[in-house]
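// run 5 | inverse folding | seed 20
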């Protein structure tokens, strides 16, 4: 059971993150992207502070570790979520957006080896390639609901992927003395140092054009509590136990969750090619995680 916990944690995190493109698309009808992400992580930091103080699980940050956490806050959430929010805003389908965001497993082994000297096995590479082939099949299977939208969405989402990979390197390098809640709290707290000044410059003059009704605000709270707190803490817990390469491989299952949610709740059709793609993605994940005794 102890060995299974990181995999259960990361699957729950990916399921939650599979809902975020859909929720983000909805909120962006009322709020600007920068306002959405700033409000989301402000709420998340307040929630983690309350939980950490009540449970006495929030640890004090040592000064020598400050640069590492500042770097983490800059690349993800700050850069990642700005790029993701604007990319989602001009792309057409949440599923296609999630497919593009799920390509981080292709780059994770390179970064993990160069920066962490993390061992990358043949099974890891084969599994990632098979799983990525399933993701590509999801894109190529023709369906009007999966249109790519504006071509500018692709480079924005691709840049977000690079930030996501660098973030996993940061949390992997975070000293073992810090628990997962502490790591995520300080990374997101420092991200507000970048979010808030940019928000004042970019979005505050246009505040009157946004619609702060209860439905988008409730969705922002969901994104903060579940996607920014629970999912981030679970992902951090998993990365620190199974490594950057194997943890990032699970990003390929995010578009599967997104597609199934769109199928069940939003009547987005899934042709047989996409069901085949789902099977290929899952097969690749099993191969990637396989280790000889």
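// decoded
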């Amino acid at each position: 059971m102890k060995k299974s916990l990181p995999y259960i944690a990361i699957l729950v995190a990916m399921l939650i993150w599979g809902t975020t493109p859909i929720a983000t698309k909805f909120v962006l009808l009322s709020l600007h992207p920068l306002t959405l992400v700033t409000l989301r992580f402000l709420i998340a930091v307040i929630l983690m502070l309350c939980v950490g103080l009540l449970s006495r699980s929030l640890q004090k940050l040592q000064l020598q570790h400050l640069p590492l956490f500042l770097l983490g806050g800059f690349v993800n959430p700050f850069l990642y979520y700005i790029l993701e929010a604007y990319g989602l805003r001009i792309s057409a389908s949440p599923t296609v957006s999630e497919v593009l965001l799920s390509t981080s497993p292709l780059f994770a082994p390179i970064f993990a080896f160069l920066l962490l000297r993390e061992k990358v096995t043949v099974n890891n590479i084969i599994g990632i390639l098979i799983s990525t082939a399933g993701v590509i099949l999801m894109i190529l299977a023709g369906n009007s609901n999966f249109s790519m939208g504006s071509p500018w969405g692709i480079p924005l989402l691709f840049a977000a992927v690079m930030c996501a990979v660098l973030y996993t390197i940061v949390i992997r390098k975070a000293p073992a003395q810090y628990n997962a809640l502490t790591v995520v709290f300080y990374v997101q707290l420092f991200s507000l140092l970048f979010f808030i000044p940019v928000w004042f410059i970019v979005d505050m003059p246009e505040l009157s054009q946004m619609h702060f009704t209860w439905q988008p605000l409730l969705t922002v709270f969901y994104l903060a509590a579940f996607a920014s707190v629970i999912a981030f803490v679970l992902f951090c817990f998993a990365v620190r136990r199974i490594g950057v390469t194997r943890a990032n491989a699970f990003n390929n299952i995010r578009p599967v969750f997104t597609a199934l949610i769109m199928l069940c709740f939003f009547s987005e059709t899934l042709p047989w090619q996409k069901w085949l793609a789902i099977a290929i993605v899952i097969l690749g994940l099993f191969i990637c995680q396989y280790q000889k005794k």
